[in-house]
Design brief:
Strand content: under 5%
Helix content: 55-70%
Number of domains: 2
Mean pLDDT: 88
Strand order of the largest sheet: 1-2
Radius of gyration: 33 Å
Distance between the termini: 112 Å
Length: about 325
């Protein structure tokens, strides 16, 4: 035993990076008591005390309070139990910090006023039930009167965000923006009109069929990818394909009335907020992002308008 290495407080400070003052405090309070004293009266510590000090330093770095650390090093409470409790507490703190970070990030990006920051903070603090009520009210408004049709309950479910219990900062940011869209009366009205136009395109038999928006999106995609000018003669073929498909969908011939109806459908669909809602939904739910509708709708609107007859004077 006499040959075992002994360390002074200065030795421990150099080994651990802790200050002499801190180590002396741990020794004075009995958290890391000295093993012996030198002939001159200096406190000395053995290898076990060094290991005990290393554990104390680690637990302090992890945010464990000194009272709990004392119980751990005195073996009054098992270290795994303490670790589990503090890990759980840290998880809660991390979630809170993510929420705060998301609110501040969104506020900074948009130059939000104090009232807007308060509103963002309230949206971030909503419970799962409260978030469900907010989105449910939005979807009920959009699909009111259509729920008895077989397809729409499933569509409503697919448009419902499910923020996970441990969301990332990006998911919280997406939730904040999506919640604001849900509360926007102009967006509600636009989506409600789009839902009714979709239903009207399916008011004939032989379901299911694509609606006007799906027809345009699928047919226009290659033209968009190629950078084709919608007013150029080369776009005639794309317009002809869309008109033919939509005429067959409606069960009526290609005429001014059909084209006007298609223009009305696409004017409503040409709302970038609809694409934004679906992108945000994908982020929140962890889905892959789908194809945007607005670019195809805008392209075809330009193409069709360029080919519509001039109104009579």
């Amino acid at each position: 035993m006499s040959g075992e290495t002994r360390y002074t407080i200065g030795d421990l400070a150099r080994r651990t990076g802790l200050s002499v003052k801190t180590i002396r405090y741990y020794a004075d309070t009995g958290i890391v008591p000295p093993t012996d004293r030198s002939p001159a009266g200096y406190r000395l510590f053995d290898a076990e005390a060094v290991a005990r000090l290393e554990l104390v330093r680690t637990l302090r770095d992890l945010g464990v309070d000194l009272a709990t650390i004392r119980r751990v090093v005195d073996r009054e409470v098992p270290l795994p139990e303490v670790a589990a409790a503090h890990a759980e507490a840290l998880a809660v703190q991390i979630r809170v910090l993510r929420l705060r970070q998301a609110v501040l990030t969104v506020a900074a990006k948009r130059g939000a006023s104090s009232s807007e920051v308060e509103d963002l903070h309230r949206l971030a603090q909503l419970t799962t039930h409260q978030r469900g009520r907010l989105v449910g009210d939005f979807l009920d408004t959009v699909f009111a009167g259509l729920g008895d049709q077989p397809a729409y309950p499933g569509v409503m479910v697919s448009m419902t965000p499910e923020l996970p219990d441990e969301p990332t900062t990006e998911q919280v940011e997406a939730w904040l923006e999506l919640a604001e869209l849900c509360r926007d009366p102009t967006f509600r009205a636009s989506m409600r009109q789009l839902a009714r136009q979709h239903a009207a395109d399916h008011d004939v038999t032989e379901l299911p069929r694509p609606d006007a928006v799906a027809v345009v999106r699928d047919a226009v995609a290659p033209a968009l990818a190629a950078g084709l000018d919608p007013t150029a003669p080369e776009a005639d073929a794309v317009v002809a394909v869309v008109i033919d498909r939509y005429a067959r969908l409606r069960g009526r011939p290609d005429d001014t009335g059909l084209r006007q109806r298609l223009l009305e459908r696409l004017t409503v669909a040409n709302d970038p907020r609809r694409d934004r809602y679906l992108d945000l939904l994908s982020v929140i739910n962890g889905w892959s992002t789908g194809d945007a509708v607005a670019p195809a709708a805008e392209w075809f609107l330009q193409a069709l308008r360029a080919r519509m007859p001039e109104p009579a004077r």
